[in-house]
Write the structure tokens for this entry.
Amino acid sequence: MRDFGESRARIELVRMTRTLRGTVEYDGTAFAGFQKQPRLKTVQGILETAIGQVTQQTATVVGAGRTDAGVHALGQVVHFETGSSLSTGTLERAVNACLPAAVRIRCVEEVDSSFHARFSAKSREYRYLVENAVIASPLWRDRAYQVAQPLDVEAMGDGATLLQGRHDFAPFGTPMKYSRHSGEGSELVEVSGGTERTMLAADCWRQQRFVHFRFVADAFLRHMVRMIVGTLLRIGRGALSVQVLARMLQGDRLVSAGPAVPAHGLYLVRVRY
């Protein structure tokens, strides 16, 4: 009789489990990136702790992008499963009350169980902010990368235009690695994809003393945006030509990309589904 009761309780728990999706904003300055790591402060770890405090259940939070240490987000999307019966509005307010001021979750909604924050995404938009000024503002020291030299924004824009379309972006980054069950049993193995990506939009513009870079792609390689911005800044300084960038995209490996710009100027702005 007890076994029957326990089985029934497990069935009821499965029936009550909901998949929730939320949009997360965070200042990445004090975090070792989004992905949870042992003994390090991460956005995923902070979120899981807060959700656990509210629901009294263990939660695994999955993000659309594994942002690096120091990277910020305006529109990171996450999902997690919970058996809690709290309304989405109540859960949103309660979780935010348990989060540090540097992290906020909003737009929490119930979605179909098939939704996956990472694998359901159609595109991601990143922006990079450069403070093009001789004297840097202390207010932007963790929000923008200072470049003191004059920059040719028009030439950088021409270079950004070349990035649009389907290319092998191997010079600009490495594939993300994911854990997947092997075909034999439940053993987890690390797998990584190729280096071809579709860049849906790439541009840059000046706004007063700031230069904005925008990139929208179906997916990004690790450090890809930071390496691209570093390459475009070389064009803006006159140290690299747009023609050389074109050759790099065509497979010429005689010239290296980058160097990667610092993480603190990078923002995950939007994820589209």
Summary: The domain at 2-111 is CATH 3.30.70.580 (Alpha-Beta Plaits). The longest strand covers residues 196-207.
